[in-house]
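Progress note, sequence design subtask.
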C-alpha cells in the first residue's frame, strides 16, 4: 500500500506573526504535511489593483507575491497576508486559515464562491487585550499619566514625602467599569475586573451567550451614566462608526475615564479631545488611534491625562502561539477528513457541491 502524499501547506508570516510561529506549531503534524515558508517583511500592503483587492484591508505584502508562492499548495496559512480571488485561483486550495479574530485581509466571499473553507482564530488575543485594558484602567484611576508627565516636566520625586498628594486617585473596589461589547475580550475583562473588586456593567446589542458571574447587563445610556470607566470591546462595523462621539461623551459621568482597545473607527477622536480638554473626562487610554496625515503628530499625545500605545493589545508570545495552535487544529481536521474548526463560511459546502 503506497504512502499518502503529504498535504502541501504554504505558511505566510508577516511583521507581526512570523512564519516561524506557524512552522513550530505545524511541526507536530510530522510527515503528513509538507510546509513551504514565506516571510513578508513590509508592514503595509500594496495599492489595490483588482476588485478583490479592493474588498480586503489591513494586509501586509503584495498579493502578486503570495499568488506566485501559493501555486501547487493545498492549504494557505496566513495572519496578515492578503488572500484575494487571484491568489485563490493560483492553487488547488482546500483550506485557508487566517490566524486573526477578524480576517479582514481575506476575501471570504471569493473563497466561498470557489468552494474553499476559511477559518480564523477567535479569541486568541482575549487574555492579552484584557490584561492591557485592566492595566490601563488601574493607571488611569491612579493618575499615572499625569504623575509621569509631572516628573518628565521637571517635577521632583524626592523633595517631600507628601508629593503624592498631588495625585490622589481611587481604588478598584470603589469604581464601576462599563464594558461596551461582551465577546471574547469583554468577557475576559469582566472576569479580571471582578477579581480586582470593580463593579462591572456591560452592554452588547447582541445578547451574549455567556455573561460572567457578577456582571450586570444594562442599556447603553445607563452604562454611560453609571460607569466611572467606560471600556470599548465592540467589533467595528459601518453601523457603529463613531459610536463614541460628542453625544456619548456628554452622557458619561463628569470626571470619568475612557478606554479603547478595540478599533479606532469606534471613536470620534476630535470629540474625545474636546471632552478631555473641557474637563468632562478625567483621562483616556487608547491602544488604537486614527492614522494622521503623513508625518503628523497625533494631538492626543500632548494631553497629560492620556495614554496611547501602538496597538500592542494582542502583542504577546502567548497570542502568537494560540493563533498558530488554532491553525494546526483546523489542518489536523482536514487531514482526518473532517470539517475544520473555526469555520467562517459554511456556505462553501453548497458551492463546492455545485463545482464538483
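Output:
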Amino acid at each position: 500500500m503506497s504512502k499518502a502524499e503529504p498535504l502541501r501547506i504554504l505558511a505566510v508570516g508577516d511583521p507581526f506573526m512570523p512564519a516561524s510561529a506557524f512552522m513550530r506549531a505545524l511541526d507536530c503534524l510530522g510527515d503528513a504535511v509538507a510546509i513551504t515558508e514565506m516571510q513578508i517583511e513590509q508592514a503595509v500592503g500594496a495599492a489595490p489593483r483588482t476588485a478583490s483587492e479592493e474588498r480586503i484591508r489591513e494586509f501586509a505584502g503584495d498579493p502578486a507575491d503570495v499568488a506566485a508562492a501559493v501555486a501547487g499548495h493545498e492549504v494557505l496559512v496566513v495572519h496578515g497576508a492578503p488572500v484575494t480571488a487571484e491568489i485563490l485561483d493560483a492553487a488547488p486550495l482546500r483550506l485557508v486559515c487566517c490566524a486573526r479574530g477578524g480576517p479582514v485581509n481575506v476575501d471570504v466571499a471569493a473563497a466561498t464562491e470557489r468552494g474553499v473553507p476559511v477559518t480564523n482564530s477567535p479569541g486568541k488575543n482575549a487574555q492579552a487585550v484584557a490584561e492591557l485594558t485592566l492595566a490601563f484602567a488601574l493607571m488611569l484611576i491612579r493618575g499615572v499619566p499625569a504623575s509621569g508627565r509631572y516628573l518628565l516636566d521637571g517635577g521632583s520625586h524626592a523633595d517631600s514625602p507628601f508629593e503624592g498628594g498631588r495625585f490622589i486617585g481611587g481604588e478598584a473596589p470603589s469604581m464601576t467599569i462599563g464594558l461596551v461589547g461582551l465577546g471574547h475580550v469583554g468577557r475576559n475583562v469582566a472576569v479580571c475586573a471582578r477579581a480586582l473588586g470593580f463593579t462591572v456593567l456591560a452592554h452588547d446589542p447582541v445578547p451574549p451567550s455567556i455573561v460572567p458571574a457578577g456582571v450586570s447587563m444594562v442599556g447603553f445610556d445607563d452604562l454611560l451614566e453609571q460607569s466611572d470607566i467606560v471600556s470599548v470591546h465592540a467589533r467595528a462595523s459601518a453601523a457603529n462608526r463613531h459610536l463614541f462621539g460628542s453625544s456619548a461623551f456628554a452622557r458619561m459621568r463628569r470626571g470619568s475615564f475612557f478606554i479603547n482597545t478595540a478599533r479606532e473607527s469606534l471613536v470620534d477622536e476630535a470629540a474625545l479631545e474636546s471632552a478631555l480638554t473641557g474637563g468632562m473626562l478625567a483621562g483616556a487610554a487608547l491602544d488604537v488611534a486614527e492614522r494622521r496625515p503623513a508625518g503628523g503628530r497625533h494631538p492626543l499625545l500632548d494631553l497629560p491625562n492620556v495614554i496611547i500605545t501602538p496597538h500592542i493589545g494582542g502583542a504577546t508570545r502567548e497570542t502568537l502561539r494560540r493563533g498558530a495552535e488554532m491553525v494546526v487544529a483546523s489542518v489536523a481536521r482536514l487531514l482526518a477528513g473532517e470539517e475544520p474548526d473555526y469555520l467562517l463560511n459554511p456556505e462553501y459546502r453548497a458551492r463546492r457541491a455545485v463545482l464538483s
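The two ends are 27 Å apart (CA to CA). Work on this subtask will continue into the next period as scheduled.
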